[in-house]
Design a protein that fits this description.
Blueprint (H helix, E strand, L loop, with lengths): L1 H14 L3 E6 L1 H12 L4 E7 L14 H10 L4 H12 L2 H12 L8 H15 L4 H17 L1 H10 L4 E6 L7 H10 L4 E5 L6 H4 L1 H21 L1
Parallel strand pairs: 1-2, 2-3, 3-4
Helix pairs in contact: 1-2, 4-7, 5-6
Amino acid sequence: METHRDAIADFIRAMGGRATLIGNSLGGLLSEMVASTYPDMVEALVLISPATPPRLPDPEIHWPMARRLLLGATPGIGTMLNRQILTSMTSRELVNDLLYRITHKPERIPLEMVESFVAIAEARRRLPWAAEAVPKTGQSIRRNLMRRARFIEMVRSIKAPTLVVQGVADPVVSPTSVAWLCSLRLDWELVRMDDTGHTPQIDSPVRFLSVIEPWLESHLEQELTA
């Protein structure tokens, strides 16, 4: 995770200064890490179902997905499972399985978007580290989320204005966890989108843009006039 964080910071620096970060799931956690470590580089955050420590007991947690994520982030087991998946499923089957799990109604996803996902999956599976990358990233996410006190300190240190968006039917990150995250920062705005899952930007892109664009315009204008 720290390698990803610093790579994002290097890219922002190479592009000439500051950025608005919009991150989903793992990308949301990474955006928080960048904003905390490099506050002068980040002008605003949009966190979409950001990876967040679980809150137990949690009546909203999706246990089949939670068990799947836990196994995938277990050293040894995660790599074995990922190798098995890569050898037993085609790229199209991988994409269809993933969309079934993270979107609310996968049949609504435009065909051209699905085809682009398949092309990316096909390119990624040919990389020499394909079987190792996802499990190792999962292990790093797990380590970061288990350090709850450090996570809370990171969230409270963020200076950038922040919008949090989550699908009501999210099976990956529990709404209970996201509500707890926002309770740490009462100045953060939380929007829950009906009829969407873990990826509201894919489930309902037009409605998603109608949420984030006015917010971004408002906060970036405030920063320009400050």
